[in-house]
Amino acid sequence: AQKITQTQPGMFVQEKEAVTLDCTYDTSDPSYGLFWYKQPSSGEMIFLIYQGSYDQQNATEGRYSLNFQKARKSANLVISASQLGDSAMYFCAMRNANTGGFKTIFGAGTRLFVKA
Amino acid sequence: EPEVTQTPSHQVTQMGQEVILRCVPISNHLYFYWYRQILGQKVEFLVSFYNNEISEKSEIFDDQFSVERPDGSNFTLKIRSTKLEDSAMYFCASSFRLAGAREDTQYFGPGTRLTVL
């Protein structure tokens, strides 16, 4: 079964510090993509970062990096130098190339609070 | 930067009424999707659309729902007879490719908040 698990319902971080948001996934498909989306209080879903299952290196996009540990089936998001504007809900998501059809499946999300 | 747009941003309707939610996907994208998010819950897949037909739908997407691409730019979700439990945020998304690379990233619109009274 394809599944995304985010075990941290809420996280606090001090401004300017780094924070790691956990994500584990389950799939039998060898080809898949992992995504992180940010959902601020305004409600929109903002794409942050992508990691392909065959990518040799961890993905990075500015202050966002993805700690991809394939054997452990984890894809943790690392936000460096947190800013107040990073306060939002963060969703880990997955698409399976061969068995998942057309949909992206999402985890339950982690709400991040950045303290000044 | 191109983006997915959705209208209206908020729709209030009476139970039993029909609603149409509208989306304009990114112009060179080929795959279109609708998702919904009930308040405080996870994002759920509803339907995907490619080459002018539904390519996949979830169990949520019953006969009350339909999708259409009436012209070259718009993509709509119709709910024929709304129920209280249809109250949710509805997201449209589009992608260039189906799967296998970064290009299959689904980009989401800002959402339409549907409230059924």
Textual characterization of the structure:
The complex is a heterodimer of chains A (116) and B (117). In chain A, strand 5 (32-39) and strand 6 (46-52) form a beta hairpin. The model of chain A has no long low-confidence stretch (mean pLDDT 93). Chain A has strands spanning 3-5, 10-14, 19-21, 24-26, 32-39, 46-52, 60-61, 64-69, 74-79, 88-96, 105-106, 110-115. Chain A is built from no helices and twelve strands. Chain A is mainly beta and 116 residues long. Chain A starts with a strand and ends with a strand. Chain A is globular. In chain A, 0% of the residues lie in helices and 52% in strands. In chain A, strands 2, 5, 6, 10, 11 and 12 form a six-stranded mixed beta sheet that branches. A four-stranded antiparallel beta sheet of chain A has the order 3-9-8-7, with no helix packed on it. In chain A, strands 1-4 form a two-stranded antiparallel sheet. Chain B contains no helices and eleven strands. Chain B has strands spanning 5-7, 10-13, 19-24, 31-37, 44-50, 53-57, 65-68, 75-79, 88-95, 107-108, 112-116. Helix content of chain B is 0%, strand content 48%. Chain B is globular and about 40 Å long. In chain B, a hairpin with a 6-residue loop joins strand 7 and strand 8 (75-79). Chain B is mainly beta and 117 residues long. In chain B, strands 2, 4, 5, 6, 9, 10 and 11 form a seven-stranded mixed beta sheet that branches. Classes of the chains: A mainly beta (116), B mainly beta (117). Chain A binds chain B through residues 31, 33, 35, 37, 42-47, 50, 52, 91, 93, 95-98, 100-109, and chain B through 31, 33, 35, 41-45, 48, 50, 55-56, 58, 89, 91, 93, 98-102, 104-111, 113.
